[in-house]
Write a structure and sequence with these properties.
The structure holds 2 protein chains of 2 kinds. By secondary structure, chain A is mainly beta. Chain A has one helix at 12-27, and strands spanning 32-37, 40-45, 52-55, 93-95, 100-103, 119-120, 125-131, 134-139, 144-149, 155-157, 162-166. In chain A, strands 4-11-9-6 form a 4-stranded antiparallel β-sheet, with no helix packed on it. Chain B is of the alpha+beta class. Chain B folds into 2 domains: 2-187, 2-Layer Sandwich (BirA Bifunctional Protein, domain 2), CATH 3.30.930.10; 194-237, SH3 type barrels. In chain B, the strands form 2 sheets. Chain B has a 7-stranded mixed β-sheet, with helices on both faces. In chain B, strands 11-10-9-8-12 form a 5-stranded antiparallel β-sheet, with no helix packed on it. The longest helix of chain B has 22 residues, at 155-176. In chain B, 44% of the residues are buried. Classes of the chains: A mainly beta, B alpha+beta. The interface between A and B is medium-sized, with 29 and 35 residues.
């Protein structure tokens, strides 16, 4: 069974987020859920003594480059308070077709392809995923508005990980 | 094979992508005598003076995106074989995934870009080979054929060999699958298996490079025995 560790120290939205992840854990046969959003990384697991582990990984702009508790993890964008449990089931969720490194800008010194709230056309490049020095564009599957971007620049992504939401 | 030769290009990859955007998917090659904005990985500059090879090949593909990285190794083997034919006594090796080294210095770099336009997926493989010169101030030591041989071949001669070798390995990949490419790559990367340092965007770690998997990821065994699959990043010997 999942349970929360020191929930009283968490800020409201993070507590809610952990609660939702824990609920999913209980409703499914999964033993562990890990999610990343911006600088916030949360892993909820049914195994071991410490069942909830939330850290903010290296994030030079918005957070110190040390692991901190969920209480101190920054929420970089308003979108981080949206209901994360629903993201992968969201009809507009676009998932990674491959393992690799995601880039939200064409080169390190260029402007991002898009930002949250951008209106895009079907086929527009939203981000790049690199693997084996091959850069692949992830494009908008339909025209609409990008409501969430769930990856940072140069962030490793797994197959099936939600990259962004288009509505 | 269609070959487009240009005196000056921004970059041959950009030229190839423009063709794909205009619904011309090749297969073709574009070669430029010079590039004004030659690029490496993540916007790194690729100095492109006269006398070296700057070329890109564009071709359509029906493979899934997660397999397109395979072409990185197809191209690496083709370049490795090209250089070996030019300079048979040269000590060439492949550094994961597709840098070609001569006496442990970089003599060739590749950058692949894919896309889908007009409902067709395509791949652009950009190849730079240092024939007459190489930059001095690179993070990874560079070299050129001219540093090792008095008589170097013309760009045209290198290009003719390269297009032939690439066609050969491309066909082998399409007919026999990635396993044929993987074993050919591994035999050319043997020198590179062993201690490596891997630099990712947010971390650096060291271990032993031991293998390459069926996707093309480098398998690195850490000191604690864990094996990490590296899909992207800079790999250094030692």
């Amino acid at each position: 069974m999942a349970e929360k560790k020191k929930p009283a120290q968490s800020k409201g939205s993070e507590t809610a987020l952990i609660r939702e992840l824990a609920d999913i854990l209980n409703e499914t046969d999964l033993s562990e859920i890990e999610m990343k959003r911006g600088d916030l990384k949360i892993r909820v697991s049914k195994h071991g003594g410490q069942v909830i582990n939330a850290v903010a990984p290296h994030a030079p702009v918005t957070a110190p480059a040390t692991s901190v508790s969920a209480a101190a993890a920054p929420i970089p964008t308003p979108a981080a308070s949206a209901a994360p449990a629903d993201i992968s089931n969201h009809p507009g969720a676009v998932k990674s077709p491959m393992v690799g490194t995601a880039y939200v800008r064409p080169s390190p010194d260029a402007a991002p392809f898009i930002s949250e709230g951008s209106n895009v056309k079907e086929g527009d490049t939203i981000l790049l995923i690199e693997a084996m020095k091959t850069f692949n564009p992830i494009t908008a599957p339909k025209s609409g508005t990008i409501t969430s971007i769930l990856v940072d620049d140069a962030q490793p992504v797994e197959f099936g990980e939600v990259l962004f939401v288009i509505e | 094979m269609r070959i487009i030769e240009l005196d000056i290009a921004g970059s041959t990859n950009a030229e190839a992508r423009q063709l794909a955007d205009a619904a011309d998917f090749g297969p073709l090659w574009i070669r430029a005598n010079q590039q004004t904005v030659g690029r490496g990985r993540r916007g790194r500059n690729w100095t492109s003076p006269l006398g070296n090879l700057y070329a890109s090949t564009l071709f359509p593909t029906n493979k899934s995106m997660s397999d397109l990285g395979h072409y990185s190794f197809v191209a690496a083997i083709a370049v490795h074989e090209t250089l070996n034919q030019i300079f048979p006594s040269g000590n060439f090796a492949i550094k994961w995934p597709n840098d070609i080294l001569l006496d442990k210095a970089k003599i060739s770099g590749l950058l692949l870009e894919t896309g889908k336009t007009h409902h067709q997926s395509w791949v652009v493989v950009g190849i730079g080979i240092n024939i007459v010169s190489h930059p001095a101030d690179t993070p990874y030591p560079a070299t050129s054929l001219a540093e090792h041989q008095e008589d170097v071949p013309s760009v045209q001669d290198v290009m003719a060999l390269l297009t032939d070798r690439f066609s050969n390995w491309h066909a082998r990949y399409e007919n026999q699958g990635f396993e044929a490419i993987r074993s050919a790559w591994l035999s050319r990367a043997a020198d590179f298996m062993g201690p490596v340092t891997v630099r990712l965007a947010d971390e650096t770690f060291s271990g032993q490079a031991i293998d390459m998997d069926e996707k093309g990821a480098l398998q690195v065994r850490l000191a604690n025995g864990t094996i990490r699959a590296v899909h992207a990043g800079d790999v250094f010997l030692g």
